[in-house]
Amino acid sequence: MESFVDGILYNKNKNRFEQIKEKAAGFTNQFIGNNIIQDDIFSAIENYARTKEMPLEWVRLPIDDQELCACTFIRGGRIFVMLNSGLPLSKQIFAAAHELYHIRCFLEEDDSELAQNGSILNAKTIDTGTTEEEEMEANAFAGLLLASVDYMLQQIRIFGIDKDKISIDDILTLMDIFAIPYKAMVLRLLEESLIDEPKAKELISIPGGEINKRIKITGKAKRWSLVPVGTEKLGSIMEYIDDNRENEILPESRIKSDVDRLETIKKRYGIE
User: Fold this and answer.
1) How far is Cα 262 from Cα 138, in angstroms, rounded to an integer?
2) What is the average per-residue pLDDT within 117-143?
3) What separation in angstroms does the CA of 20 have from each of 12, 91, 93, 231?
4) Residue 67 half-sphere exposure, CB side, CA atoms within 13 Å?
5) What are the sequence ranges of the domains in the chain?
6) What confidence tens digit (pLDDT) does each residue in 24-71 have?
7) d(CA 259, CA 29)
8) What count of other Cβ atoms lies within 10 Å of the Cβ of residue 89?
9) Helix or strand or coil: residue 61?
10) CA-CA to 112 of 20 to 30 Å: which in 87, 199, 211, 264?
């Protein structure tokens, strides 16, 4: 059976990977600049959509289903990105960068898939890989955007990391800097030939429990492994409910049900 490492875009299609690398570099130059982006990814995506004259809104709620990371859809000339805020922040950051790839394809490459069907990102796509080409591309784009090779080399030098003896703790050090999940960090090192495939597979095979134990002991990457509190947002959903009422798009009973449910959600999560 093909391993996670074997199934990534870098190994499946290096030419396409290099094309995605150019796209990520172009986005960085125009919308990020000389920064390690971390959780600024959210405002960068909003700003990007603004420059394309396409309003974008975040809906961030702690979904009980841990398999659902994010979904993106277009309604009424707006892009809505729903993020599961019940996930560790590093996974939310990576999920946002992943969804950015689909948004970019729609806005710049006339890809109609997002408008027609939307996008749903499952945890498995990040944690164990995917066979869908566009999802592979989105994973590669997210990693390239969040952890560029220039900054990786810079930080490896600054922290005195020996590329020939990279350990879990070294990966955690880099995770702390780049705010991306453990496996994504390992794959970025592989994609830039900073580690070889056997080493990548060795690091990825380490059980999550052991990785979490080292996070607790060292404190490295802890801030990104926590589930943040107070980031819940509902965007302009209430405005759409009001539009449905004014234009008589839905029966009043359905609108009342939607309002009651929305008020319950707002009360539960302390959303104004």
Assistant:
1) 32
2) 95
3) 13, 21, 19, 30
4) 2
5) 9-233, 237-272
6) 999 999 999 999 999 999 999 999 999 999 999 998 988 888 899 999
7) 43
8) 18
9) strand
10) 87
